[in-house]
Amino acid sequence: MNNNDLPLGSQRKIRTTHRERLAYIYVRQSSPKQVAHNQESQIYQRHLACRAKSFGWPTERIHIIDTDQAQSGKGSSYRTGFQELVAELSPYVDRKIELTP
Q1: What does the pLDDT look like over 50-65, one tens digit per residue?
Q2: Residue 1 pLDDT
Q3: Greatest CA span in the chain, whole angstroms?
Q4: So which residues are the catalytic ones?
Q5: Which residue in 36, 43, 48, 96 has the fewest CB atoms around it within 10 Å?
């Protein structure tokens, strides 16, 4: 799918300035059991990189963060991938995001 195949609304909303930024894909499952037995969820989450490509992001501008596999979402202090994501996106966020320890 190329950019001309996207729904008209998507073509108008996604601009070159968006594609100049990195597209982040955050892959996480909460428990070792989910990681071992729910492979389709990981595949679906990683497939979001293909979706980003279909919206016009070049492969080298798509960044997959998957360092938090088998890490509960109850806290963020030990989830290094989430911390990386927040640090990278914080310049683009207009409001303060409060993270729970």
Answers
A1: 999 998 999 999 999 9
A2: 45
A3: 44
A4: 30
A5: 96
What is the DSSP secondary-structure string of the chain?
A: --GGGS-HHHHHH--HHHHTSPEEEE---SSHHHHHH-HHHHHHHHHHHHHHHHTT--GGGEEEE-TTTT--TT-STT-HHHHHHHHHHGGG-SSPPPPP-
pLDDT higher at 11 or 40: 40
Where are the chain's structural domains?
A: 3-92
The radius of gyration computed from the CA coordinates of the chain, to the nearest angstrom, equals 15
Contact present, 14 and 55 (Cβ < 8 Å): yes
pTM of the model: 0.68
The Cα–Cα gap between 88 and 91 comes to 7
